[in-house]
Structure formats: C-alpha cells, structure tokens
Design brief:
five-stranded antiparallel beta sheet, 28 strands, mainly beta, 38% strand, elongated, 379 residues
Length: 379
C-alpha cells in the first residue's frame, strides 16, 4: 500500500511508514474481509521539476527515468518524463544529485549539467517545502561497450563480475555486472573510455582492457553512437602475496605503508596498504615482479625485498595463477619526519586491483547507471 500526493507537496509513503516499496510491509487480503487501521502520515518534501529533451533537436523525450540520489549513492526517488518531456517529483529534504537515463537503451544516461561523473554532478541542498525548477536534461543517442568475461584457464563464463567504465580523466562513468552467461553491456555517450573488470571477492585478478593491469597503459575503447564496441576479458585467478611491514630497530608494526609490485617494464602492477598490525595482502596477476614498501608520511625510508638497497638490486619474484606466497616482509629504517615523501604511487589511474578492495554495491535499480559510489576517482 502507498499514499502519494498528486499536487507534489508531500512525500510518497508506503505502508508502515517507509519511503520505498522494497521496505514496505506486505498486507494480506482475504476475500470478503475488510482490513482497517492503515494510517499514512505524510511529510512535506521538496518539489523538483524539469524536462528531458533530445540534445540536438530539442524534441521532448518521453519515458526517461529521472532519479534523485544522496551524494553517498542512496537512491531516494524516481519518476519518468511525460509526453512533453516534463517531470515533477517530491524529494526528501537534504543534499541530492540528479541523474537521467533511458531504460529503452537508446539515449545515453546523463548526470545533471552534463557532468562526466556522479561525483562531479551538481549537488542541491533542498529545504522542506522548497521548489526547484528548470532541471533540464539534454540526452544524446548512445553507443555501447559490450563483451564477455571468462576464466582464462577454463574458459568458463563468469557471473556477477563488475565491469567499470572510466573517463580518460580517471573518474568513474558507469559500472555494470555480468549476466548469468558472462555477458555485459553498457550504454554510454559517444567518446573515449577505459574499461576494467573485477570481482569483489577477488577470486580473479582485476584487469583493464585489453590485458592491462593499470589505468595508464589500458587500451582506449572508442564509443560511436548507435554502434557497439567489443571489450572482452579473460581473467586469471590472482596470486596473493602476504607479509608484514615493521620498524627495523624496534620490530614494531608500521601501518599505512604502501607495498608496490613493479613488472619487468617498470609498471606499477599492484598495490596494498599495511594495516594496524603491519600486515598487507597484495593481489597480482601471474607474472614476475619486484617489490618495494614506501611510507607516504616520510617517517621511514623506502624498503625493498630481502634488504636490497634499490629497486634495481631487488630480487625478481615470479608468481603463478592461484599461488599464495606468505611471509614477504619489509623492515624499514626510520629517517625522521623531515624526509620528503617518496614518489612511488602507481601510475595515473591507479590499479584495477585497488578498485576490487572497495565496496561497489550499487544503488537500486540496476541499470547502465549503477555507480560504484564509494570508488575513489582514478587519478
């Protein structure tokens, strides 16, 4: 059961005083029986109105879904544009960001004012009883990036793998998940993007298209309106390196140290950060690497595996798919607070591995605009 206000003053409420159907208590109805006592207490919200139109012709677009989210990614309310492209909805007071997308898969989704990412979209702080008008979206026909995600060893199709699309600036444009057949498809504005696949349980090593470990060296996927660009992924079970980072003099654990793996080309392929116990877990694709540990606060000098004094003299370590290597430790020498911060961060965009460690639970409903809201920007 739900009560809503067609004058767009009061917030919609579902039975048992909840704002969403998914949270509402079901009411069992029996033939010939009248149920009473269902009360609704509606609260005044903020009215938001505007239009959805074609970006080139200005023609009204019917049936475009307009969504209001908290900056954290919580979906608050949705509505659809009418026959003249107009929409009106009542939104809970507070900070919101607005998104438009087309469930029919013709027009690419749009963050308000054509922001390239959700985190860059205009944020409105709405007061109870306020009216926000002129929220106009201009949508263009989109193109598609689609592909298949498989296990590189067995060829099995992988279900539920996240496929993230990044703008070339490093911000997240969209995230979708593979189907039961391992396929995915995401509708985007025409342009250039980089694409990564990762699974949150980290059963597979994260990977940028095509077969790259870091953003900077990933291939660029070019999207053309009303056409499909194919980006397939064959994913390996990762190797995991575990160990601790400690003070060379006191043997005490050091938290916040970045452990980085470099491949033979000198590319930072994976990173991990030591926890309060000095422990870290580094997730890597199969390959050969050199490791270093860097304290970004400048308290400790950079350390290398086996006590080497430089990356050049550090030993190579080869790991295979699914291998677990433990006991890879680093003992760092304190050098004082005035030491400059070592420049050992991964190349621009970071690694897809870092994305796999961040919650990517998307807001409902799932569409091409499921955003991994808590992901850091890929810079």
């Amino acid at each position: 059961l739900a009560a809503w206000d067609e004058q767009f003053v009061y917030l919609t409420e579902f039975h048992a005083n909840v704002p969403k159907a998914s949270l509402a208590t079901a009411v069992a109805v029996t033939s010939g029986v009248t149920l009473g006592g269902h009360r609704f207490t509606l609260e005044v919200g903020a009215r938001v109105s505007g239009t959805a139109k074609h970006s080139d012709t200005g023609a009204a677009l019917t049936g475009i879904t307009i969504s209001a989210y908290r900056p954290t990614g919580e979906l608050l309310v949705q509505t659809r544009s009418g026959t003249s492209g107009e929409f009106t909805m009542v939104v809970p007071p507070g900070k919101v960001r607005l998104v438009a997308h087309d469930d029919s898969g013709v027009y690419a989704g749009s963050f308000y004012r054509d922001a390239e990412a959700f985190v860059l979209a205009t944020e409105f702080d709405l007061l109870r009883g306020a009216s926000l008008s002129g929220i106009d979206f201009r949508l263009a026909k989109g193109g598609t990036i689609a592909g298949l995600v498989t296990d590189a060893t067995t060829g099995a199709r992988l279900t539920g793998v996240a496929v993230a699309v990044y703008n070339l600036s490093g911000t997240t444009r969209s995230v979708v998940y593979t189907s039961a057949t391992g396929e995915y498809s995401v509708l985007l504005l025409p342009g250039s993007y980089k694409v990564a696949a990762y699974d949150l349980p980290a059963l597979y090593a994260p990977q940028f298209w095509s077969k790259r470990a870091v953003f900077q060296y990933a291939d660029t996927a070019v999207v053309v309106a009303e056409r499909t660009t194919t980006a397939d992924f064959a994913m390996f079970a990762p190797a995991r390196l575990t160990g601790t980072v400690s003070d060379k003099d006191t043997a005490g654990p050091i938290a916040g140290v970045i452990v980085t793996a470099f491949d033979a080309a000198g590319i930072a392929t994976g990173q991990a950060v030591s926890d309060s116990l000095g422990a870290y877990t580094l997730v890597l694709p199969p390959g050969t690497y050199k490791l270093l540990a860097s304290d970004t606060t400048g308290r400790y000098a950079t350390g290398y595996e086996n006590g080497a004094t430089s990356l050049e003299s550090a030993p190579w370590r080869t790991v295979s798919s699914g291998q677990l290597v433990s006991g890879v430790g680093f003992q760092l020498k304190r050098v004082g607070q005035t030491r400059r911060r070592p420049a050992v961060r991964a190349s621009s965009g970071g690694t897809a591995g870092s994305a796999a460690k961040v919650s990517a639970k998307a807001a409902e409903p799932r569409s091409e605009f499921d955003i991994p809201w808590k992901h850091p920007q890929r810079k």
